[in-house]
Queue: 3 jobs
Job 1
Amino acid sequence: MPDLKDILNEEDDPKNDELLKYIHGDLSKDEQHEVEKQMASSDFVSDAMEGLQQIRNKRSIDDYVDELNRQLQKQVSAKKERKEKRKLKDNRWIVIAVVIVLGLCILGYAMIRYYEKNSGDRIAPTEQKD
Amino acid sequence: MTQQTLINEPAVGQTKYLYFTQVNKGKYSDITDQELLEKFYADSSNEWLGILLQRYTLLLLGVCMKYLKNEEEAKDAVQQIFLKSITELGKYRVSYFKSWLYMVAKNHCLMKLRDKHINVDIEKVHLASEEQPKQEHLDKDKVLTVMEDCLQYLSEEQKQCVTLFYLQKKSYQEIADDTGYTTLQVKSYIQNGKRNLKNLVEKKMKESSARS
């Protein structure tokens, strides 16, 4: 038995397939009333239903939604791929930096050894003199 | 099963609803919007946003269609809203996703119209009904008395439509047929009547609790 308190009740979020059925006129009277209660509770749902009613070929709504969902998935995975590529790119620079630093260390060590050896060669004859 | 398997395209010949319902009745259907957002904030994986936004594709398409009045423009606008949402949600925390998304969509459409130099009477954005937590602890009998009283303060059209809709459970179309209003007027009288009634009841309840 409906009473005035029903007006204050917040409705649950509407299910998309119910909204689609409402637009296609595939709901029973009670189900239709439930959807209309959800519309009365939410400006988002109400505006959306008003807009969907303006689509000329109602059967194409499902196709539009499918198409948009596929594009959304592309956007989401494109962002993910970009993130992974960026990660790889970042890692590549780290590896290059490490190689350069190691190369410089080895070069430095080799040069020190070379100069030590050279200066040792130069000192050796004077020692023989004494 | 990954999200990718949930969104496979339907084979030729499958019903139109299939792809759409596959997505929405997937393994994430039990997870609330807020939980999906928390998962996104925890690992920054856009997959969560994909699942979340997909729940609102139909509503977004409808809102864009309402303002832009063109199917192709509405579809483009939904894609742009998706992109904007993915970018913005990475920057800051959102508490009431549904209301936030509605606001983003509405603002996007109004900006589009402004770019086209179309003047729109910007309606007041009534987000309160979606942002406020549900009322649970009001004394039911007291509310009923207050409501009967408050109903008298509504305009005649609002009172008539609210009563026919909530008490006699009539549909928008039936009310329109009975009263001679258009369905858009009926919708508007019910929405505004409900909002006004709610505000009046809350005000009265506050006043009576302050007195006692």
Note: The first helix of chain B runs from residue 3 to 6.
Job 2
Amino acid sequence: MLLALSASVIVVLVLLWEVAWPVALERIERWRASRRLIVADGYDPGRERRAEQKARALLCSCVNDEEWAMYRDLGFIRVWGGLAEGPMADRDGRGAPYAYLIYPHKPLVAYLPQTRRLLSEYCITFLDESRPYGSALLPDSDDVLAKWMALTGDERRIINSANMHLPGRQVDPKQVRRDLWRLGQWEQARLREQRRGAGSVPAP
Amino acid sequence: MKPGHGEVLIAEGDIEVPEEQESLVAMFRAQLEEGMWAAVPRASAGGRREAQMVTSFDDIPADADRVIFFPRAAGGG
């Protein structure tokens, strides 16, 4: 009787050991892994934030006050088109009744300011030739500045480089119309502030 | 502009100094050969800010205080 009981206890212990040992081993490994020092390989978690701060400073130094305030307050910049007749008479005597909205890492959105009708999307990427298998993105503000420089410097070239699509392919038209409404409100508020600053009295 | 890094100073110098001008020209060409586009931000005649794209060192306006290089644009998805 005692022998049978002892044998049973031994069998139970062996079975428990078989079940418990892998679990215990895994927990030991986890504990060791949690205490292991990992060499970070030079990764700097603040790099992208600093890059964006530098990019914002660079953008601010390149665009005019209105465009910078627009980007700071609304998150996009409007650039007037210069390839047709329109209100921008100061650009080589040509103007444009159309404009672009520049969003970071989104297509340029062309639209008619008078009617707020969306015309098209121009998809553009800025390739990093030094990294043939794909590249890190430019910081948001650098992406906006690159588009701004390309548009104001050589609109035809950038538009020819872009892939054109109908509105709504990547940027939600509802969002664009909302942004255009926000832009209108923002411009009116800015105008009121400027009038107040100039000491004039607004019309009743 | 460098993806993942933002603005990086490539070179600086005085174009009135021949050695520095040579260095600036060499760096300018090297950037263009790497496929970068170059632009000079400036104020237009109407007072608005705009960029002037430059494809050779001689195109850079004499009063420009900097040239910004950025990756060339291509059609995206």
Note: The longest helix of chain A spans residues 2-35.
Job 3
Amino acid sequence: MEKVLEVKNLTKLYKNQRGVKDISFDIYKGDIYGFLGPNGAGKTTVMKTIVGLCRANQGEINIFGHNITDQFEAAIARVGCIIETADAYEYLSAQDNLKIAARFYESVGMPRIDEALDIVGLRPYMNEKVGTFSLGMKQRLGVAAAILSRPDLLILDEPTNGLDIEGMADIRNMIVNLAREQQVTFFVSSHLAHEMQLMCNRVGILNNGSLIKEGAIVDILQQYPSLEQFFIEQAKNSREGSIDEQFAG
Amino acid sequence: MNSLQANFLNETHKLFMKSKVVACFVVAVIIPVIMAFLIALLHDKAGVLAVDPAGFPVFILGGFTAILLPLFIFMWTADSFAGEVGDNNLKIVLVRPISRFKIYLSKIMSLGLSAIILLLIILLSTFSAGFFLGGNISSHLSGLGNGIITYTAAVVPMLSLVIFAAFIAQFFKSSSGALTTSIFVYIAARLLPVVFPTSSKVLLFSYTNWHEMWLGNLASPEKLIYAFLIMFSSCIIFYALGFYLFDNKEL
């Protein structure tokens, strides 16, 4: 199976020494890979490093075989993302925001812009300035910008943030349908185990900057009643392991 | 369309959609008209012609290049770099298939183009407003000829200010901080020659009126080349430092 994203020994520490250490994982074509962890676990740090918003202290990241440091444009060409918040130019309309993004992609024209706005339900508001949008509408616009170029890899950091129940269901269904029908690969983060369980086929548990466990959802649910229980168990084991290390040291 | 072209168009699109940029262009049209009206009024009332029609475009340019143009350039550049960091908008372009080198270059190019368009608008406005001052058509055309030379020469120092302002903006996460600092450094650098007269020869900011060297009795080629090299070398230094900071920026 084609390896879409390869992360090897990624370490990124900020000045306060918080961050992520020695993270390694692979994502394959068609996966909906979830990063599950509490706030501050390092999910966003990993995603930011993957898309070039910050530089790793150590490690290697390859997207579709291209190194993110040496071949950034080639690596990111087939990637769409929302990292931390869905940002937009508030003094421009929704449509203008997508026109700005579309210029980077030869294959994206006005029909695709209109289609993306339709998918996220923003077509009626396309000529309104983004500054007048609610949080949920801005999040939808962020999704439209991410899917605009028909990327083969979508990196979504808490994509249902700010959405109501229907909006969350819409995003989940969009993710599942795109993965199934168009073989789009997803790398999604969340602190909500239930959401991950509904969407993902594989999950990585992140806690205190370390990737403590990875597994297929199907396998996990054979051993645990829910992904939440699995996460709690892994987090507990990780804490006990680090306490044991302290005592051994 | 390659990524550099794409982002150059994007940056220019964004710039001209901002109301404060449009306001600057409106000011650039209005001020020459008001000045021409006041000079004509003075001539009518007191019989004093402060500026003749042929010299009007260059007269107005002097005021713009000393004060208003640097202010506008600092404002636009602060918005384009530090303002986008503060608004969390810089991320939007950083995750697209374009290198940071091309992003930085395209922003500078777009700001430079805007400064050139502003100079063109001021030239056209001064030429049109100059008819308030009377005079025959040949004096106006002579003024236009001088204006084209001097306004073209003014592009060089204004582009230098764009590159300087872009460097300053890398230190800030808000456009107000970047703008204030750019203005402060500019004023300090313009005043420094009062205390250290020789400093005016090596400071970029001493050459915002470089266009005057191209008038009438031309300055010697050596002086023109010297001034150009000071501006050019300042551009290289500020561009390299500014890009280094931009390339290492983490969001």
Note: The interface with chain A takes residues 1, 3, 6-7, 9-10, 13-14, 17-19, 87-89, 91-92, 94-99, 248, 250-251 of chain B (CB under 8 Å).
